[in-house]
């Protein structure tokens, strides 16, 4: 059995490497085709030179070198299925399964090395998500038209609410780089406080059935901060203000104070929160530890998206293995004449599984049907494909003719 296991395992690993290069290569080519106008700077006749051409090629190569690590995450479930299909169909095509079955070896036993290897290879996915991709976030957040030496794109912050109910605005926010910290320009911050006051009806406070005055709570401006710029201080976890000024006493029953200088602004609005405010895709590149850290912050932006990524990060290796176990029964046939039908059935079942994964992944980021489901909705949607296709995989494996 050791000889057979080594033979099946070596064949599967070779096919895994081939499937990785083919599928990732196809993904890169398709992405290039659909974004070719952004990848290439179109110039007038006679303006392009050999230097420009080589710079464009180098920029494209640099862009897709880092994107390959993300593409592998997307294809991590399909690659072992394709490798297993080529391995088992090849054994059936050359009648090698017949000889093994004649020796009294069960057909499921032949697929055992593939299942174990598929389980171990999910470690590559974990290493990619937890160690490699988080270190490449600045490179991965680039658009197709950005070169390797391009700086981070600036954008405006129209309004962000901090954990103290204040409102922050900035005319321009520039993400940090390896040498420069994140910076905001023309900063405007409105500090607000909650005030309870009675609901008036006919010029009189409204009284409820219990005889008490019905109160309502509103937010009113209590202070105003302006600054020419705000520079992120990572050591102190705050924004150092340039020409910062603060005025208090803005409520109707308060006396407005004189302008006072203010040196810094501290709240839960950090560069990570700004990135969440700007783009939800940024969360996909974070490690699980960083996601847990963001979830522990009060009032963090994108709580639903963070929960969706957190639970799917744990479920994805399990679901990838379920897809492999789901496909193997359709690939194990002793009759070479049924290879085409076996491959077709495997393709259909795998496509249905991938479609269910995509659907549940999208539903996990939406609002649940009932508000009380909000706490466990992302986890439920992440585990739903496993609950559906896990028993199906066991059922199909149990029905394999051997």
Automatic annotation (TrEMBL):
GO biological process: lipopolysaccharide transport
Membrane topology: Multi-pass membrane protein
Keyword Nucleotide-binding: no
Protein localization: Cell membrane
GO terms under cellular component: ATP-binding cassette (ABC) transporter complex
Name of a matching Pfam family: LptF_LptG
Keyword annotations of the record: Cell membrane, Membrane, Transmembrane, Transmembrane helix
Membrane spanning residue stretches: 12-30, 64-89, 110-127, 314-332, 344-364, 376-397
UniProt name for this protein: LptF/LptG family permease
């Amino acid at each position: 059995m050791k000889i057979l296991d080594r033979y099946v395992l070596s064949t599967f690993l070779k096919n895994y490497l081939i499937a990785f290069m083919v599928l990732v290569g196809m993904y890169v080519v398709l992405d290039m085709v659909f974004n070719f106008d952004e990848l290439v700077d179109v110039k007038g006749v006679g303006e392009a030179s050999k230097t420009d051409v080589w710079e464009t090629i180098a920029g494209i190569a640099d862009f897709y070198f880092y994107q390959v690590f993300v593409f592998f995450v997307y294809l991590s479930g399909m690659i072992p299925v394709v490798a297993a299909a080529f391995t088992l169909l090849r054994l059936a095509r050359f009648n090698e399964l017949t000889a093994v079955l004649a020796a009294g070896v069960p057909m499921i036993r032949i697929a055992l090395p593939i299942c174990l290897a598929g389980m171990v290879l999910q470690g590559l996915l974990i290493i990619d998500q937890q160690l490699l991709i988080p270190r490449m976030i600045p490179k991965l957040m680039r658009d197709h038209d950005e070169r390797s030496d391009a700086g981070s794109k600036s954008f405006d912050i129209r309004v962000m609410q901090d954990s103290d109910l204040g409102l922050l605005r900035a005319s321009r926010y520039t993400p940090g780089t390896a040498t420069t910290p994140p910076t905001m320009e023309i900063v405007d911050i409105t500090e607000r406080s909650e005030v309870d006051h009675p609901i008036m009806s006919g010029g009189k406070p409204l009284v409820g059935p219990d005889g008490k005055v019905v109160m309502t709570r509103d937010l009113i401006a209590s202070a105003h901060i302006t600054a020419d710029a705000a520079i992120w201080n990572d050591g102190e976890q705050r924004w150092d203000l340039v020409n910062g000024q603060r005025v208090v006493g803005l409520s109707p029953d308060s006396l407005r104070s004189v302008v006072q200088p203010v040196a810094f602004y501290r709240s839960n609005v950090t560069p990570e929160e700004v990135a969440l405010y700007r783009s939800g895709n940024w969360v996909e590149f974070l490690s699980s530890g960083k996601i847990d850290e963001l979830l522990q912050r009060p009032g963090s932006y994108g709580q639903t998206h963070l929960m969706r990524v957190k639970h799917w990060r744990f479920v994805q290796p399990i679901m990838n293995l379920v897809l492999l176990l789901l496909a193997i029964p359709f690939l194990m046939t002793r009759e070479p004449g049924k290879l085409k039908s076996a491959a077709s059935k495997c393709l259909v079942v795998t496509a249905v599984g991938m479609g269910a994964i995509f659907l549940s992944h999208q539903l996990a980021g939406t609002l649940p049907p009932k508000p009380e489901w909000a706490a466990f909705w992302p986890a439920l949607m992440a585990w739903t494909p496993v609950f559906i296709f896990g028993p199906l995989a066991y059922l199909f494996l149990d029905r394999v003719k051997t």
